[in-house]
């Protein structure tokens, strides 16, 4: 039915989701197939596919922060079902009646860097399609739309006791073997602040199909899960939505809530993401040949309208911190990340741990390790980002000489883990050492 | 040539070693085949095979410390070549001329727990047959033999300037594509202290072929690498052996010595192992259902004639330490490990980190993390042993109720990482919670 997987890199196929959609029938029979064709048409060929269906993908590390505005084909995608089939001739409303809003907005999935959660302990993440996101489930785009507040006012305003707005997407959502639409809610206070936009344009183009064409919600400073795509209905309600996306998923648990004592009400519904950051270059387990400083690149972000005030890097696992100079950070925006680069001083030869952390304008900062914020839901991995790098420091004489010798002999550097038979020390040098130094053992 | 691998569990085949031995020819043509047949005949069927040839194997975790004296079929094996073919009628000497020595001795490979070194950073360990030892490269046996000192005295004593004794094994040893015998040395001071034994009996039986029949060296309190098997020659020399096992391997480097700046003389030749310990039960990523204490088992050891004085356990990653009561430690011996068990208090639900460490009679203790002692040679992983365990605490009401419900419904516990569709909280309970509690968001 779905044909062979193309020569890209899907990690999880999503067979259960495909089978469920097929079983429901009707237009959903071809949902998985349609979805994958849209991926191939709309997304960059190098996207890292975490889940084929529902489609979940992020840009490869080298492209995550290569531009401060993410090109549409590289913007991460976190879908929960198929891509809705929309009748192009039915426009939802006459948007010209409302002031046009144009905003640059960073959207982050609360599963960003979930892979670190999974690597530490697992949880339920490695069996169900809780996509194993790396650092790329965050992207930035310029949206055009109108304020939801104005639309509601135009409809006559909100009646008491309504305090929340429930947003319905045409996307299917499966939870505990029950199927429904993708539904969440946002508080009226957020709408009233003009921080909820109904958008139809992304980086100067109509919304791509995969990103919610023709109309989606953009909730400024909230997790991506609230920015409903393929919006088809808005309902005023008294309490936060009881739909499963809001009530049973995207919850932030305490460390001691787990598989056998879990209650949804023990989780905080995730709305704003806390301050976080990530290193995009170099990458973990890479060998970096340098002469005393290592060029590092990455991003930093804080939810809720806060912005990165300072980014700090450490080459010694978080003992000593260097600040990225302000001019090496991209410019501030109320709803956007800042990308950065920095030449991190490093004298060490061998394995080091590079760490980055951010302080936002409210002076919030990140927990120092994954354990501190690990939770059964595998959401919000906002701890200081740590990567292991093998430092080869050519400013050290012995290292420089050895590498020069390799070059003379025409030997290219093998992967670090390959055994190397180029002799380091000659037999003469060995004997000379022991003539010049004390023996291993004491003599008494 | 070697036939199919039996239905056991070899991890690395050792194809290069097999090819080298085959290329040398003569008796070595069948060395790999002979070696594997000996494994099948002499070793326990559940041995964990780390390398098929040269044979490297350790007992499975549940059997490492099940007895304080390791049965011969379960004793770990670290061979470097084939098992020597010995003419049974040629006895090396008349041992009845010397006092008989009987000693219980723990032998530890300096690669014990190397897997933690490899998991942290890799190094060269994952490409060359540097066996990825876990915690089982340590075993204890009762040996019968004679003192090497007496033999040398009997031969007329040592002449100046000799200060070391070079020990030759019949085993082949390949280093940097050169082949030789397995050769190491021990200082005369160690021999003079009567701490080097020539042994022919192991746990009341003649030495198994795989353990050095008919004669091997046992160097008390030194790493296993010095206890040469299939001993055929002893030579008095002025300096430590220049043979590669002693001069180029079994070296303990500083963290900043690596692939491109390595000099053998920067490594300390490893003789005595430092104090270390390991947890054998429970095991990492296991789910442990308990009522407030977790039964833990393991070993502790210190080289050089020192012994474990105290073993401590932590259920919180090394913040709080409990001492194993002396009666729960096996008895002291100058050259032996101590096995232990302890019911570790644990109130926590969810992921915990159990850590153990030992203090020896000289009050030496272990570094607290692998990083602190990581070295390019991947030797001596003596840091406090850490395992991740998922604690299910039935002394907590909610957990007990949930598990009772599972039992009523006849649902057995799935692996932790499998998604669970048994509902935790009912819709009524959910609504009741929100009637009793403040809403998520503030209202202003």
Automatic annotation (TrEMBL), chains A, B:
Gene Ontology MF term list: heme binding; molybdenum ion binding; molybdopterin cofactor binding; sulfite oxidase activity
CC per GO annotation: mitochondrion
Classification via InterPro entries: Ig_E-set (IPR014756), MoCF_OxRdtse_dimer (IPR005066), Mopterin_OxRdtase_euk (IPR008335), OxRdtase_Mopterin-bd_dom (IPR000572), OxRdtase_Mopterin-bd_sf (IPR036374)
GO biological process, one term: sulfur compound metabolic process
Tree of life domain: Eukaryota
Family annotation (SUPFAM superfamilies): E set domains, Oxidoreductase molybdopterin-binding domain
Keywords of this entry: Metal-binding, Molybdenum, Oxidoreductase
Cofactor section: Mo-molybdopterin
Domain Oxidoreductase molybdopterin-binding: from-to ranges: 97-243
Keyword Metal-binding: yes
Pfam family, one: Mo-co_dimer
Gene3D superfamilies assigned: 2.60.40.650, Oxidoreductase, molybdopterin-binding domain
Ranges for domain Moybdenum cofactor oxidoreductase dimerisation: 269-390
Keyword hit for Mitochondrion: no
PANTHER family xref list: SULFITE OXIDASE, SULFITE REDUCTASE
Protein name, per record: Putative Sulfite oxidase
Source organism of this protein record: Penicillium brasilianum
């Amino acid at each position: 039915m779905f044909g062979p997987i193309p020569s890209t890199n899907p990690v999880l196929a999503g067979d259960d989701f495909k089978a469920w959609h097929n079983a429901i029938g009707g237009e959903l029979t071809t949902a998985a197939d349609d979805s994958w064709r849209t991926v191939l048409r709309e997304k960059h060929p190098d996207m890292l596919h975490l889940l084929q269906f529902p489609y979940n993908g992020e840009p490869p590390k080298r492209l995550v922060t290569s531009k401060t505005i993410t090109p549409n084909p590289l913007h991460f995608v976190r879908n929960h079902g198929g891509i809705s089939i929309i009748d192009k001739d039915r426009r939802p409303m006459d948007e010209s009646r409302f002031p046009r809003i144009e905003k640059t907005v960073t959207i982050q999935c609360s599963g960003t860097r979930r892979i670190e959660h999974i690597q530490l302990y697992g949880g339920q993440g490695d069996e169900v399609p809780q996509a194993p996101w790396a650092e790329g489930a965050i992207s930035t785009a310029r949206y055009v739309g109108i304020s939801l507040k104005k639309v509601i006012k135009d409809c006559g305003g909100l009646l008491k006791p309504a305090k929340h707005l429930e947003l319905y997407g045409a996307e299917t959502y499966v939870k505990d073997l029950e199927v429904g639409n993708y539904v969440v809610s946002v508080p009226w206070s957020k709408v009233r602040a003009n921080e909820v936009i109904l958008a139809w344009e992304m980086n100067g183009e109509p919304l791509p199909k995969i990103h919610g064409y023709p109309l989606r919600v953009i909730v400024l400073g909230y997790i991506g899960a609230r920015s409903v795509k393929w919006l088809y209905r808005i309902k005023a309600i008294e309490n936060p939505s009881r739909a499963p996306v809001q009530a049973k998923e995207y919850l932030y648990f305490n460390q001691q809530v787990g598989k056998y004592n879990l209650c949804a009400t023990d989780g905080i519904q995730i709305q704003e993401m806390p301050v976080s950051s990530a290193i995009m270059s170099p990458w973990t387990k890479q060998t970096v040949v340098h002469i005393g400083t290592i060029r590092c690149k990455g991003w930093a972000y804080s939810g809720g309208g806060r912005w990165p005030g300072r980014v700090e890097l450490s080459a010694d696992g978080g003992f000593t911190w260097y600040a990225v100079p302000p001019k090496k950070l991209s410019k501030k925006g109320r709803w956007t990340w800042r990308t950065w680069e920095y030449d991190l001083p490093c004298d060490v030869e061998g394995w080091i741990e590079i760490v980055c952390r951010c302080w936002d304008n409210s002076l919030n900062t990140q927990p120092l390790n994954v354990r501190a914020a690990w939770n059964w839901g595998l959401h919000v991995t906002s701890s200081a980002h740590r990567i292991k790098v093998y430092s080869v420091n050519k400013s050290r004489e012995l290292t420089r000489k050895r590498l020069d010798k390799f070059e003379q002999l025409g030997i290219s550097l093998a992967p670090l883990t390959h055994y190397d038979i180029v002799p380091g020390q000659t037999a003469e040098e060995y004997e000379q050492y022991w003539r010049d130094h004390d023996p291993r053992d004491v003599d008494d």
